[in-house]
């Protein structure tokens, strides 16, 4: 994943999480992920797999396409 895409994804996950009043722990629980992994994605320390992106998108009740659509930021 390019650094630009990773930054945009991290920003979008943080924005969506905060808009929904969710903590990293809550997002991680709903998505079936570890809280530290969510934090690492947001802090650009990990690049999520497609499977992880599906889990995060589902936790936000959206498709992966919507999660990766950075024109809506």
- By CATH's scheme, which homologous superfamily applies? lambda repressor-like DNA-binding domains
Low-confidence stretches: none
Dominant shape: globular
Q: How many distinct folded domains?
A: 1
Quaternary organisation of the protein chains: single chain
CATH domain class = Mainly Alpha
Number of helices: 5
CATH topology: 434 Repressor (Amino-terminal Domain)
The helix-and-strand class reads mainly alpha
**Overall pLDDT confidence:** 95
Percent helix among the residues? 55-70%
Percent of sequence in beta strands? under 5%
The tally of strands reads: 0
- Do you know the CATH architecture? Orthogonal Bundle
What are the secondary-structure elements, in order, as H or E?
A: HHHHH
Largest sheet, strands/sense/barrel: none
What is Rg? 11 Å
Describe the secondary-structure layout.
Elements: H1 3-19, H2 24-31, H3 35-42, H4 50-59, H5 64-68
Helix pairs in contact: 2-3, 2-4
In short:
With 73 residues, the protein is mostly helical.
Descriptive notes:
The protein is an all-alpha fold and 73 residues long. The chain has one domain (3-72): 434 Repressor (Amino-terminal Domain) (Orthogonal Bundle), CATH 1.10.260. It contains 5 helices and no strands. It has helices spanning 3-19, 24-31, 35-42, 50-59, 64-68. Helix 2 (24-31) packs across helix 3. The relative contact order is 0.18. The mean pLDDT is 95.
């Amino acid at each position: 994943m390019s650094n630009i895409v990773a930054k945009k994804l991290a920003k979008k996950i943080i924005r969506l999480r905060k808009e929904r009043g969710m903590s990293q722990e809550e997002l991680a629980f709903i998505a079936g992920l570890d809280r530290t992994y969510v934090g690492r994605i947001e802090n650009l320390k990990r690049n999520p797999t497609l499977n992880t992106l599906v889990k995060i998108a589902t936790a936000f009740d959206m498709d992966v396409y919507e999660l990766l659509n950075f024109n809506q930021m």
